[in-house]
Design goal:
single chain; 498 residues; alpha+beta; Nucleotidyltransferase, domain 5; 7-stranded mixed β-sheet; 6-stranded mixed β-sheet; 17 helices; 23 strands; binds adenosine-5'-diphosphate
């Protein structure tokens, strides 16, 4: 009989299932998109049943594609969009309303209010996070305040809160599993990342009844079993992690100082900081990477707001590209960007600049500038922004990395990765399996189910497809970085305060 590990990868726009062989190879993949709901400006919601049905649909299809049977699946791993907030009825499993998605800004005014009362430091010390609508606590509070009868029902123990991992496990187990893992809990603003428990001060601050919260467990280990009436077999669920943390695990960044970068719509850099949470003053987030092999590992996280989406802008806004995948070819028509810099500060700039009033800027244009230079400058901007966040992380922690593993849609771009190696002056590794998020979830589940003994065994299953070595000399690199920083200065404080 074949043996598979099933990774459920529940993302913001689609639910994906990847079946891995126990040797860590992809056997099949299935993806189902589901609707994004925008009930008001700045609000983003998902229908919890659409999340569930698309995820179960993808799981069934992935198994059908290999002609497999449910008993051949020996473990399930779950990875998911983080922070998205759901509430449901403990008895029936019926959702109370739509999920409030991480992108939703509806609680921005409440966060401003709390910030003025000076709670931010306490929150940062306990959770490692900033006071921002992004995280779950203010979303959950909003649901309790704005759904008739919800608060009383929550206090009576009739309602459950969960992030997407908890919701999926509840459904898969027919209501038997009500749990989450450290990495997902660490994104709620309610979880103390030092005591590894829900924090009473934070629960009081956000007015959340403890009885509606799931049990928090390490990311690796038995959470419970799927209900055979739902999945067709009693399968152990034994690996759970938020998407970025799962990717860090999937990239085998098991040692302190190792980091990975994901080039997706936005960019996500995570650095393993070992067994102690590392708090910084410069807007980087401190988070739990995972609980595995009987210990807890922490990470620092920095993001680039506009990464691959700048390429979408070239395609859909400027219409100088037919497809994102043409960008490497188009950019290779010129030897360099001809002194042009694009700063894609479309929605302001994050780390290390932190300026919400920055706006996109193109500088260095001459009569010789062509669209190819602009396309090349956009690809280069992805590498410069990544270098800025890495520089901040390395300066904050004193840790450095000898090489950078990468993933995400835009990591298919060879020109980008070559330039990234030049700007960082370190080799860039692109793994053969760029589905690192699902791979990470599958590996956590494999460890949890005892299929693998340790992370050393997982390292041996990860193959590098290509390494990009730096070609540029250091002087040239320094000259370009300096020019990039001058370009960024031109973009700062552009939008006037209203
Ligand atoms: P997400 O998971 O954040 O939705 P993906 O990891 O699927 O995103 O990456 C999609 C992004 O990558 C898009 O913004 C797209 O413009 C960009 N992208 C995809 N392929 C390439 C490429 N070959 N070169 C540059 N950018 C690309």
């Amino acid at each position: 009989m074949n043996r598979y590990i099933m990774a459920l990868d529940q993302g913001t726009t689609s639910s994906r299932c990847i079946l891995f062989t126990t040797e860590g190879k992809i056997a099949s993949t299935s993806t189902r998109e589901f609707p994004q709901l925008f009930p008001q400006e700045g609000w983003v919601e998902h229908d919890p049943m659409a999340i569930w049905s698309s995820q179960i649909g993808a799981a069934v299809e992935a198994l059908l594609k290999v002609g497999g049977q449910w008993p051949e699946v020996c473990a399930i791993g779950i990875t998911n969009q983080r922070e998205t907030t759901l509430v449901w009825d403990r008895k029936t499993g019926a959702p109370l309303g739509n999920a409030i998605v991480w992108q939703c800004r509806r609680t921005a005014a409440y966060c401003d209010q709390l910030r003025e009362t000076g709670y931010e430091d306490m929150i940062k010390q306990k959770t490692g996070l900033l006071l921002d609508p992004y995280f779950s606590a203010t979303k959950l509070r909003w649901i309790l305040e704005n759904t008739p009868g919800a608060r009383a029902r929550a206090e009576a123990g009739e309602l459950c809160f969960g992030t997407v991992d908890t919701w999926l496990m509840y459904q898969l187990s027919g209501g038997k599993i009500f749990a989450t893992d450290y990495s997902n809990a660490s994104r709620t603003l309610l979880f103390n990342i030092r005591t590894l428990d829900w924090d009473d001060d934070l629960l009081a601050l956000f007015d959340i009844p403890r009885c509606m919260l799931p049990e928090v467990k390490p990311s690796q280990g038995l959470f419970g079993y799927s209900d055979p009436d739902i999945l067709g077999a009693r399968i152990p669920i034994c690996g759970v992690a938020g998407d970025q943390q799962a990717a860090l695990f999937g990239q085998c960044c098991f040692e302190k100082g190792m980091m990975k970068n994901t080039y997706g719509t936005g960019g996500f850099l995570l650095m393993n900081t070992g067994d102690t949470p590392f708090l910084t003053e410069n807007g980087l987030l401190t988070t739990v990477a995972w609980g595995a092999e009987d210990k807890v590992t922490y990470a620092l996280e920095g993001s680039v707001f506009v990464c691959g989406s700048a390429v979408q802008w070239l395609r859909d806004g400027l219409r100088i590209l037919d497809s994102a995948s043409d960008s490497a070819y188009m950019a290779s028509k010129v030897p360099d960007s001809g002194g042009v810099f694009v700063v894609p500060a479309f929605t302001g700039l994050g780390a290390p600049w932190w300026d919400p009033y920055a706006r996109g800027t193109i500088v260095g244009i001459t009569r010789a500038t062509t669209k190819y230079h602009i396309i090349r400058a956009v690809l280069e901007s992805m590498a410069y922004q990544t270098a800025d966040v890495i520089d901040l992380m390395q300066r904050s922690t004193g840790l450095s990395t000898p090489r950078l593993p990468v993933d995400g849609g835009a990591s298919a771009n060879d020109l980008l990765l070559g330039f990234q190696a030049d700007i960082l002056q370190c080799p860039i590794d692109r793994p053969r399996c760029i589905e690192t998020t699902a791979f990470g979830a599958a590996m956590l589940a494999g460890l949890g189910a005892g299929i693998y003994e340790n992370t050393e065994q997982i390292k041996r299953m990860r193959a590098i497809e290509r390494t990009f070595a730096p070609q540029m000399n250091k002087e040239e690199r320094d000259r370009r970085l300096k020019a990039w920083r001058r370009a960024v200065e031109r973009s700062l404080a552009w939008k006037e305060e209203e």
